[in-house]
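Our collaborator T.R. sent over the components below with a one-line note: 'Predict the complex.' Nothing else. No constraints on interfaces, no templates requested, no preferences about which chain binds where. So this is a plain run: every listed entity goes in together, and whatever single assembly comes back becomes the starting point for the next discussion.
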Amino acid sequence: MTLPNRPSLLLLPGDGIGPEVIAQVRRVAAWMESNAGLDMAIEERPFGGTSYDLHGTPLTDETLNLALNSTAVLMGAVGGPQWVNNPRDKRPEMGLLNLRKAMDAFANLRPALCFEALADASTLKREIVAGLDIMIVRELTSGVYFGEKGIDTNTPTGEKRGYDLQQYTQSEIERVARVAFELARGRRNKVVSAEKSNVMDSGLFWRQVVTALHAAEYPDVELEHMLADNTAMQLVKNPKQFDVIVTDNLFGDILSDEASMLTGSIGLLPSAALSTPGKPGLYEPVHGSAPDIAGKGLANPLAAILSFGMALRWSLGRPDLDETLYAAVKSALAAGVRTGDLGGRNTTAEMGDAVLKALAA
Ligand code: NAD
Ligand code: IPM
Ligand code: MN
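Returned assembly:
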């Protein structure tokens, strides 16, 4: 039986490389339970396509209830070619969107850090990326992802029409911007807010709300508004100009994949989706299920391992162990261990071994 104050972690390995990278997280968690006083109950459930195959739905009510009653949820990845033709509600990705929404996990922190040992692994020049430390704050429970959508066959001309409505309320913008401003205060005190206020009313509204919040509550933080297309360009031109970037759901999705290549690989980028205080956080690597390498033991597990680190910090009350883990990842990379995405030949398990070895050192 779970004691009332004992933290609990729900693992949702999911599809493709998800189970492979979560297997390495399990090893790290076990090491911390045996050696670092980490005390938590761990549960695991199928999720995404794997859950659909077993239960006919990507997210069962039982799994959702368990997630809502956990301290933290750590997801691997969802999706794959075998489920792309599922009806919308049965698609693995819908399970993830429904989970994010139900958990009200609105503030998605996606840090992009360049490890010194990997400054040459990026496709960009070393001097552009060395020392990089950006925090992207992506709004995760609204916007075009959750607006009215459909493929309309009943149009006046008879021509089919696909649509997804982009929309944000004032409070949705304010609460995610607040997270960005608060984070900036503990960092280099600068926020770039990215939108398309030049063409979208929802973007203009986003800019107005962020401007007013800044004036009212965060005048000490430097704020710059940047159009999202320019932000994409500036990220590869001069990424070190950024500290915190706050942006909507869709732009945040795209800008974070772009930012991953500044660090060397998408296999490195963790994320934390935070809700209101006291509610569980949802932790997930930024990468997907990588069907092209799934089942081969080639995936880089560091994004998942670092996502567990973020769970230790933001939900499980052990920021010290996040630091320990971060240092271990740094040593594993400094020792030259490299999965294929980083130009090396090491396997998923060998990367896990290297992290465990560094933890034990
Ligand atoms: P992807 O991130 O799965 O893969 C893009 C490329 O990066 C592939 O070449 C892949 O091999 C590589 N890659 C990704 N993660 C890696 C890792 N840890 N180690 C080494 N290489 C890695 O994106 P995609 O191919 O566009 O999408 C595949 C599926 O994943 C789709 O069904 C998509 O919906 C889903 N997806 C899920 C998530 C998630 O679960 N959070 C995120 C993105 C995409
Ligand atoms: C991500 C993914 C998801 C998203 C998909 C799988 C729903 O790309 O977490 O970045 O678009 O949010
Ligand atoms: Mn994405």
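Summary for T.R.: The longest strand covers residues 8-14.
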